[in-house]
Amino acid sequence: MHCLIFGFGYMGKIRYDVLRRHPAVRKITVVDPALDPSAEGLRGALLEPGAPVPWATVDAAFICTPNNVTADLCVEAIARCGRVFCEKPPGRNWEDFCRIAEAAARTPRHTLMFGFNHRLHPSVQSAKALLSDGKLGDVLYVKGTYGKSGGIRHRQNWRSNPVVAGGGILLDQGVHMLDLFQLFLGPLALVEAVLTDAFWGSGLEDNAFILLRSARGAPAFLHSSATLWKHTFRFEIGCRDGYLIGSGLLSKTGSYGREQLVIGKRQFEDEALALGNPREEIIHFDRDESWEKEVNEFLGAVQEGQPAAHGTLDDARLVMEVIRDVYALAERQPMVRSAT
After folding, report:
1. Model confidence band, residue 339 (pLDDT cutoffs 50, 70, 90)
2. How far is it, in rounded angstroms, from Cα 293 to Cα 88?
3. CA proximity to 70, closest of 154, 160, 164
4. Could you tell me which residues are beta bridge partners of residue 78?
5. What's this model's pTM, rounded to 2 decimal places?
6. With b meaning 16 or more CB within 10 Å and e meaning fewer, what string describes 219-235?
7. Cα(233)–Cα(46) distance, integer angstroms
8. Residues 46, 49, 55: CA angle, nearest 5 degrees
9. Which of 86, 107, 232, 262 has its CA 20 to 30 A from that of 142?
């Protein structure tokens, strides 16, 4: 297979490394006009500036670019080769997403997958399996916190540029937790949202507080933040007969801590040895295979001419509908702004 990668930033490098190890991939071409053709160890793989994209030989395209060009490249790649992996978010806004969806509708037998790799993290997969077997009972609520510290170069990053990014921390990182909420609960409707730009002053939200409700009435609450100062990934699922708490996240930097899942069973005071403290089981995870699993699933679907099983257009639509509604609500109410 000949794979094309648009963009060789953080995600482009990750996809490149995974594709190099895939037995079906015989050639990789990288398109990134910001790179020198001899740089980054890409001699022979980086397309020369001004050279035409070799669409006729491309089996699959990976879109790993800043948000402002994601939709244009995704639409072109769908039309040119019909087999596209697109990083999250699927564009800067709802309009960008709709352009991608319309391109997919015009292209029969396409394969389109979006980069929601958090579904494939071991704590999430284990939690989903436990919910599916029904032993914890119906889900009563879900809570999630996903945040980072921003960093000293946060204001200079393209993610802090409204024209390039389109949205703030909710669109950039909270999108993953929203996807997990809908993995656990199904489609969600917006109840309330509060956005703030209280510290970074970029004109985009640096904190998002989102309350949602599932079709069955279960609430879900998300705090997405660029001001947590301590990198945090945590989800809590309360059920009729117990609870699940996932925390930590296996990542390239290791800054989110060791990934684990706590499994607790409901015990009232006549059963528990300590009041309000039921027995818990803790599972630790030390291997993150989400990147490989995601690429393997996508390329397998490409080879078989089948749609992707996760990160689908419908999965992306559900998340982008919530984000669209959050930003629409934010336009009708004042956002707390930084004084700096």
Report:
1. low
2. 16
3. 164
4. none
5. 0.94
6. bbbbbbbbbbeebbbbb
7. 35
8. 65
9. 86
SS3 annotation, 34-71: CCCCCCCCCCCCECCCCCCCCHHHCCEEEECCCHHHHH
Joined tokens for residue 283: 């599972």
Which is it for strands 336-337 and 188-197: parallel, antiparallel or unpaired?
parallel
Q: Are 169 and 326 in contact (CB under 8 A)?
A: no
Q: Residue 105, Cβ neighbours under 10 Å: how many?
A: 11
CB atoms within 10 A of CB 178: 28
* Residue at 245: amino acid letter: I
Beta-carbon contacts of residue 125 (< 8 Å; ≥ 6 apart): 119
- Token output for 152: 């000293």
Q: How many CA atoms lie within 13 A of 219 on its CB side?
A: 7
Q: Is residue 264 within 8 Å of 278, Cβ to Cβ?
A: yes
Separation between Cα atoms, residue 95 and residue 107, nearest integer Å: 19
- Which tokens sit at 130? 């436990």
- DSSP bridge partners of 252: none
3-state secondary structure of 208: strand
- Residues 221-259 have pLDDT tens digits of 999 999 999 999 999 999 999 999 999 999 878 899 999
Amino acid type, 306: Q
Structure tokens at 240: 């009729």
Task: Using alpha carbons, list the distances in angstroms from residue 181 to 47, 198, 245, 302, 308.
Answer: 39, 26, 13, 28, 20
Cα–Cα distance between 287 and 282 in angstroms, integer? Answer: 16
pLDDT digits (tens, 9 = 90+) for 186-208: 999 999 999 999 999 999 999 99
Rounded CA-CA distance 168/198 in Å is 12
Amino acid at 304: E
Nearest to 189 by CA among 326, 331, 328: 326
